Amino acid sequence: MPGPAGSASMDLKVLFGIAVPPLVGLDISTSSVRLVELADAGKDGIRLERYASEALPRGAVTDGNIENLEQVVDAVRRVIKKSGTRARNVALGMPSTAVITKKIILPAGMSEEQLEVQVESEASQYIPFALDEVSLDFDVIGPVANSADDIEVMLAAARREKVEDRVAIAEASGLKASVMDIESYAARAALDRVVAQAPGHGAGQVIALFQIGAHVTHLSVMLDGATVYEREHAFGGNALTQDIVRAYGLAFEDAEARKKSGDLPANYTTDILAPFLESAALEVTRAIQFFFTSTPYTRIDQIFLAGGCALVPGLLDTLANRSRIPTAVISPFNGMKLAGTVREQQLRSDAPAYLVACGLALRRFAQ
């Protein structure tokens, strides 16, 4: 994501640019770092070469902000070693809340240099910071409908220090930041690839993606490859972990591990898990109703669940029953070939948490 003209803060192929293979996608979330490496499998499409994750200490990343760079670098180094990747180019994600995006209309026929100058001029109207404090990028979407003399351009800007924090993490870990994407865009890229495999390629389908993170659930609604609605809701899987901590007097890390393994007392399902599932269902149905009341849309045809919380036992069925909408847990690796080192059974339980990391890794194939 370059800065204002002539003062690029990073040696990138730009936010929307072409990635340099080989490339790994590195998703830095509140609770963990996740790495995915994909490869071109020729006529067989794409191959999942490797994936891995490492937990982050609580407080290392808060609301998308890097609070403890050393702890994050340590986790990234561990995940690189665990995965066995030799790739050094990395695609990183910025939280949607840290990036300002705006579609603008500009005259067609300008050179790249003229576009840069014009975009920078236009950006000052939409960005509540001085331009020398931001990293700025743009992508030409295409001609404006019914106006051959104009083009539509997507403008993206983020505070420079937030971008540089992530670049510093990559460099301290022995990596080169080749692409800086927006996390919601990366998730959509991974989702689009899965939807494209469905009958009719999902044409005309209103698809809701709930990414259930540790603290926040991000809802994106897509129609024919375009995002028509986005909103974050303050609800996540840590609520269940905290309930386990309070009920059984466990340390947070121990409670998180036992939540995933199921190693909990007999009353856990009825006393702890069931109320959490009801709360989750209420949050999802409220989010759907808010979508209906604040947009022209009156239906959702398919719900996909992603994130580390997506496979909590009973969550899928509870949400499907309450919403009365077809609901599935998404695997961003559907239809991919698997390298010999990837364990298919383990991947089934891990995959929903890797939507963003997979979308970032897909930038290797961007045109």
Automatic annotation (TrEMBL):
Query: Where does the SHS2 domain start and stop, copy by copy?
Result: 23-191
One Pfam family linked to the record: PilM_2
**NCBIfam families on file:** pilM
Designated name of the protein: Fimbrial assembly protein
Q: Which gene encodes it?
A: pilM
